[in-house]
Design goal:
about 250 residues; mainly alpha
Length: about 250
């Protein structure tokens, strides 16, 4: 992914998050790499909170659906108003979950790009920075695989949930039968669990990247201080005590 496209994605994601998430000021295209990874971490933390909230909601709605499915053979026989109170909030939460998951993926790719740039700029850094881009890449791959497995465990094809439009079409088709609704509810719970866990892992990766950058900067500053001191000592050692330098 190019630097330009990554910057556009990150800007779009950050624009969706509350302004209070950025106490350090607005995000600008001129941010340094250390500033970019801090901004990445802030966005991931905010997204993690949203994922936990939606996951809780989905579990609650899924339990309600299971409870009502046990009460009647087919919820299509239920009054429309009662069914809507259960199903519609679940659908809304699934839409939110899809958005959160897509944002997490974009942040993962952005982190991968930032990591590659950090490794290039800080070539003398340790493996924590050198391998950061690959760690993000592994996260992207693992998360996608886990999500596919979660959906397929409920006999739902992952490609049918690739976008919000596809998700809605799949959900509407499933709503025609009680079995379909149960599958969607169970898959939503599994997908929410995957998303919440994945974003928590993404948060850990980003924090580790921040710590590695700070450690490298401290090391560079310490080395510079030592060099400056040695230079100062060399300049002033002996001073004008050398008789040959006296007038």
């Amino acid at each position: 992914m190019s630097n330009k496209s990554t910057a556009v994605i990150v800007s779009a994601i950050l624009a969706l998050l509350p302004a209070s998430a950025f106490a350090g000021g607005a995000v600008t295209g001129g941010a340094t790499l250390p500033e970019q990874i801090v901004q990445e971490g802030t966005a991931v933390q905010q997204l993690a909170k949203q994922a936990e909230e939606v996951s809780t909601q989905i579990s609650m709605y899924a339990n309600d659906i299971q409870r009502y499915e046990n009460m009647v053979t087919n919820t299509l026989d239920m009054p429309a108003g009662v069914f809507a109170q259960i199903w519609n909030p679940l659908v809304g939460s699934i839409q939110k979950l899809t958005s959160i998951y897509n944002q997490a993926q974009a942040l993962g790719y952005a982190g991968q790009n930032i990591g590659a740039q950090l490794a290039q700029e800080y070539q003398g850094a340790g493996n924590s920075i050198k391998n950061l881009s690959q760690v993000y890449a592994n996260w992207n791959q693992t998360t996608n695989t886990d999500m596919e497995d979660a959906l397929e465990s409920q006999h739902l094809a992952a490609q049918n949930f690739a976008t919000q439009d596809q998700s809605m079409e799949t959900i509407l088709n499933a709503a025609k039968t009680a079995q379909g609704r149960e599958q969607v509810a169970a898959a939503a719970v599994a997908a929410a669990n995957v998303t919440t866990k994945a974003i928590q892992q993404l948060e850990q990766i980003t924090m580790a990247g921040q710590d590695a950058v700070l450690a490298y900067q401290r090391q560079e500053k310490a080395q510079k201080n030592v060099s400056d001191q040695l230079a100062a000592d060399g300049l002033f050692s002996g001073g004008t005590n050398n008789p040959s330098l006296l007038p």
